[in-house]
Protein backbone atom coordinates (compact mmCIF):
# COMPACT_ATOMS: atom_id res chain seq x y z
CA UNK A 1 0.00 0.00 0.00
CA UNK A 2 1.42 3.45 -0.90
CA UNK A 3 2.58 5.75 1.92
CA UNK A 4 0.00 8.45 1.25
CA UNK A 5 -2.83 5.89 1.61
CA UNK A 6 -1.60 4.26 4.83
CA UNK A 7 -2.38 6.67 7.73
CA UNK A 8 -0.21 4.78 10.24
CA UNK A 9 2.92 4.92 8.07
CA UNK A 10 2.22 8.54 7.13
CA UNK A 11 1.94 9.49 10.87
CA UNK A 12 5.22 7.71 11.72
CA UNK A 13 6.99 9.43 8.81
CA UNK A 14 5.64 12.86 9.86
CA UNK A 15 6.81 12.32 13.44
CA UNK A 16 10.24 11.30 12.18
CA UNK A 17 10.41 14.38 9.95
CA UNK A 18 9.36 16.60 12.87
CA UNK A 19 12.13 15.14 15.04
CA UNK A 20 14.70 15.70 12.30
CA UNK A 21 13.53 19.29 11.78
CA UNK A 22 13.63 19.94 15.52
CA UNK A 23 17.12 18.47 15.77
CA UNK A 24 18.27 20.56 12.80
CA UNK A 25 16.82 23.70 14.41
CA UNK A 26 18.56 23.05 17.71
CA UNK A 27 21.82 22.29 15.92
CA UNK A 28 21.53 25.49 13.87
CA UNK A 29 20.90 27.54 17.03
CA UNK A 30 23.89 26.02 18.81
CA UNK A 31 26.18 26.51 15.83
CA UNK A 32 25.09 30.10 15.29
CA UNK A 33 25.67 30.87 18.98
CA UNK A 34 29.13 29.34 18.83
CA UNK A 35 30.02 31.16 15.64
CA UNK A 36 28.85 34.50 17.03
CA UNK A 37 30.81 34.06 20.25
CA UNK A 38 33.94 33.03 18.35
CA UNK A 39 33.53 35.98 16.01
CA UNK A 40 33.27 38.36 18.96
CA UNK A 41 36.73 37.34 20.11
CA UNK A 42 38.56 38.42 23.20
CA UNK A 43 38.90 42.08 22.29
CA UNK A 44 42.69 41.94 22.11
CA UNK A 45 42.72 43.16 18.52
CA UNK A 46 39.98 45.68 19.15
CA UNK A 47 40.81 49.16 17.88
CA UNK A 48 38.32 50.81 20.24
CA UNK A 49 38.60 51.46 23.96
CA UNK A 50 40.61 49.06 26.12
CA UNK A 51 38.91 46.25 28.01
CA UNK A 52 36.80 47.73 30.77
CA UNK A 53 36.67 51.09 29.04
CA UNK A 54 33.61 50.47 26.89
CA UNK A 55 30.63 52.48 28.08
CA UNK A 56 28.85 49.36 29.27
CA UNK A 57 31.83 48.42 31.49
CA UNK A 58 32.05 51.74 33.28
CA UNK A 59 30.07 53.17 36.14
CA UNK A 60 26.78 54.99 35.80
CA UNK A 61 26.23 58.60 36.59
CA UNK A 62 25.73 62.03 35.14
CA UNK A 63 29.45 62.67 34.68
CA UNK A 64 29.38 60.98 31.28
CA UNK A 65 30.59 57.60 32.51
CA UNK A 66 28.56 54.67 31.32
CA UNK A 67 25.23 54.55 29.55
CA UNK A 68 23.26 56.34 32.27
CA UNK A 69 25.79 59.15 32.42
CA UNK A 70 25.58 59.70 28.68
CA UNK A 71 21.79 59.61 28.92
CA UNK A 72 21.68 62.27 31.62
CA UNK A 73 24.29 64.44 29.91
CA UNK A 74 22.19 64.30 26.74
CA UNK A 75 19.04 65.19 28.70
CA UNK A 76 20.77 68.09 30.46
CA UNK A 77 21.93 69.40 27.08
CA UNK A 78 18.43 69.07 25.59
CA UNK A 79 16.92 70.84 28.61
CA UNK A 80 19.40 73.69 28.02
CA UNK A 81 20.42 73.60 31.67
CA UNK A 82 22.76 76.33 32.82
CA UNK A 83 26.27 75.35 33.93
CA UNK A 84 25.16 75.96 37.53
CA UNK A 85 22.17 73.65 37.12
CA UNK A 86 24.36 70.99 35.52
CA UNK A 87 26.86 71.23 38.38
CA UNK A 88 24.06 70.85 40.93
CA UNK A 89 22.56 67.90 39.05
CA UNK A 90 25.93 66.17 38.77
CA UNK A 91 26.51 66.67 42.50
CA UNK A 92 23.08 65.18 43.30
CA UNK A 93 23.64 62.11 41.14
CA UNK A 94 27.25 61.62 42.27
CA UNK A 95 26.13 61.63 45.90
CA UNK A 96 23.35 59.17 45.10
CA UNK A 97 25.68 56.92 43.10
CA UNK A 98 28.20 56.71 45.95
CA UNK A 99 25.46 55.81 48.43
CA UNK A 100 23.93 53.28 46.04
CA UNK A 101 27.24 51.49 45.52
CA UNK A 102 27.19 50.28 49.14
CA UNK A 103 23.66 48.97 48.66
CA UNK A 104 24.58 47.28 45.36
CA UNK A 105 27.49 45.51 47.04
CA UNK A 106 25.23 44.37 49.89
CA UNK A 107 22.69 43.16 47.28
CA UNK A 108 25.41 41.11 45.54
CA UNK A 109 26.47 39.57 48.86
CA UNK A 110 22.87 38.77 49.78
CA UNK A 111 22.25 37.23 46.37
CA UNK A 112 25.35 35.04 46.73
CA UNK A 113 24.23 33.99 50.21
CA UNK A 114 20.76 33.12 48.85
CA UNK A 115 22.35 31.08 46.09
CA UNK A 116 24.52 29.21 48.59
CA UNK A 117 21.62 28.68 51.01
CA UNK A 118 19.49 27.14 48.29
CA UNK A 119 22.16 24.56 47.52
CA UNK A 120 22.97 23.31 51.00
CA UNK A 121 22.15 19.78 52.05
CA UNK A 122 19.76 20.96 54.76
CA UNK A 123 17.51 23.83 53.65
CA UNK A 124 17.27 26.53 56.34
CA UNK A 125 13.98 28.29 55.60
CA UNK A 126 14.42 30.94 58.31
CA UNK A 127 17.87 31.86 56.93
CA UNK A 128 16.49 32.19 53.40
CA UNK A 129 13.57 34.29 54.68
CA UNK A 130 16.02 36.55 56.52
CA UNK A 131 18.15 36.96 53.38
CA UNK A 132 15.04 37.65 51.30
CA UNK A 133 13.92 40.29 53.82
CA UNK A 134 17.40 41.84 53.75
CA UNK A 135 17.24 41.98 49.98
CA UNK A 136 13.77 43.56 50.05
CA UNK A 137 14.97 46.15 52.57
CA UNK A 138 17.98 47.00 50.39
CA UNK A 139 15.79 47.26 47.30
CA UNK A 140 13.44 49.60 49.16
CA UNK A 141 16.37 51.76 50.31
CA UNK A 142 17.66 51.96 46.74
CA UNK A 143 14.22 52.91 45.42
CA UNK A 144 13.79 55.62 48.05
CA UNK A 145 17.29 57.00 47.37
CA UNK A 146 16.60 57.08 43.63
CA UNK A 147 13.28 58.87 44.18
CA UNK A 148 14.95 61.33 46.56
CA UNK A 149 17.66 62.10 43.99
CA UNK A 150 15.03 62.67 41.29
CA UNK A 151 13.12 64.97 43.66
CA UNK A 152 16.30 66.98 44.27
CA UNK A 153 17.01 67.02 40.52
CA UNK A 154 13.53 68.36 39.73
CA UNK A 155 14.02 71.08 42.35
CA UNK A 156 16.98 72.35 40.28
CA UNK A 157 14.90 72.65 37.09
CA UNK A 158 12.89 75.65 35.95
CA UNK A 159 9.16 75.25 35.27
CA UNK A 160 9.82 75.06 31.51
CA UNK A 161 12.42 72.33 32.01
CA UNK A 162 10.03 70.39 34.26
CA UNK A 163 7.34 70.63 31.58
CA UNK A 164 9.82 69.38 28.96
CA UNK A 165 10.71 66.39 31.17
CA UNK A 166 7.00 65.66 31.67
CA UNK A 167 6.42 65.79 27.90
CA UNK A 168 9.27 63.31 27.34
CA UNK A 169 7.81 61.02 29.99
CA UNK A 170 4.32 61.13 28.48
CA UNK A 171 5.72 60.54 25.02
CA UNK A 172 7.40 57.28 26.07
CA UNK A 173 4.81 56.18 28.67
CA UNK A 174 2.38 53.43 27.62
CA UNK A 175 -1.29 54.35 27.87
CA UNK A 176 -2.10 51.72 30.51
CA UNK A 177 0.33 53.09 33.11
CA UNK A 178 -0.95 55.20 35.99
CA UNK A 179 -0.30 58.95 35.77
CA UNK A 180 2.49 60.44 37.84
CA UNK A 181 1.91 62.85 40.71
CA UNK A 182 2.76 66.46 39.90
TrEMBL record:
<feature type="region of interest" description="Disordered">
    <location>
        <begin position="160"/>
        <end position="182"/>
    </location>
</feature>
<dbReference type="GO" id="GO:0051082">
    <property type="term" value="F:unfolded protein binding"/>
</dbReference>
<keyword id="KW-0175">Coiled coil</keyword>
<keyword id="KW-0574">Periplasm</keyword>
<dbReference type="InterPro" id="IPR012899">
    <property type="entry name" value="LTXXQ"/>
</dbReference>
<feature type="region of interest" description="Disordered">
    <location>
        <begin position="43"/>
        <end position="70"/>
    </location>
</feature>
<dbReference type="Pfam" id="PF07813">
    <property type="entry name" value="LTXXQ"/>
</dbReference>
<dbReference type="GO" id="GO:0030288">
    <property type="term" value="C:outer membrane-bounded periplasmic space"/>
</dbReference>
<protein>
    <submittedName>
        <fullName>Periplasmic heavy metal sensor</fullName>
    </submittedName>
</protein>
<feature type="coiled-coil region">
    <location>
        <begin position="89"/>
        <end position="148"/>
    </location>
</feature>
<keyword id="KW-0732">Signal</keyword>
<dbReference type="InterPro" id="IPR052211">
    <property type="entry name" value="Cpx_auxiliary_protein"/>
</dbReference>
<feature type="compositionally biased region" description="Basic and acidic residues">
    <location>
        <begin position="50"/>
        <end position="63"/>
    </location>
</feature>
<comment type="similarity">
    <text>Belongs to the CpxP/Spy family.</text>
</comment>
